[in-house]
Amino acid sequence: MEKGKPVFVGNFLGRSWTRVTSKTTLPAGAVELRAEFAYDGGGLGKGGTLSLFVNDKKVGDARMAATHPLTLGLGGALDVGMDSGAPVDDAYTPPFRFNGTIEKVVLRTKKP
């Protein structure tokens, strides 16, 4: 990971990682980051496309071949600002704290 360049990671059971990394560093000041996952559909465990946006400009995408075909139970967590459990990516060691300010987090889901 390069300092100042946002990354979106899809983790498939800790066996493979799909990474989308912006080619440019984040601009100064307030920034809106958005990550999207477009599932292929057609059954459980199929792949999809990861996309990363900075201030509504698409800065990269990558193809994820497969996804988890089932839920993983209570061991997982959705952390904001640091990783309190197992790392999403093998490129860092938790807690990997963010030292900026996060004003808001929005999670949107839609039914396929």
Folded structure, characterized:
This protein has 112 residues and is an all-beta fold. The chain has a domain at 7-70. The chain is 0% helix and 30% strand. It is built from no helices and 5 strands. It has strands spanning 7-12, 16-21, 33-39, 48-54, 57-64. The strands form 2 sheets. Strands 3-4-5 form a 3-stranded antiparallel beta sheet, with no helix packed on it. Strands 1-2 form a two-stranded antiparallel ribbon. Strand 4 (48-54) and strand 5 (57-64) form a beta hairpin. The termini are far apart. The mean pLDDT is 86.
Could you report the average pLDDT, rounded to the nearest whole number?
86
Uncertain runs = none
Assign the structural class, choosing from mainly alpha, mainly beta, alpha/beta, alpha+beta, or little secondary structure.
Answer: mainly beta
Q: Can you count the helices?
A: 0
Beta content comes to 25-35%
**Biggest sheet details:** 3 strands, antiparallel
Give the distance, in angstroms, between the N- and C-terminal Cα atoms: 32 Å
User: Biggest sheet: strands side by side, in what order?
Assistant: 3-4-5
Order of helices and strands: EEEEE
- Helix content class: under 10%
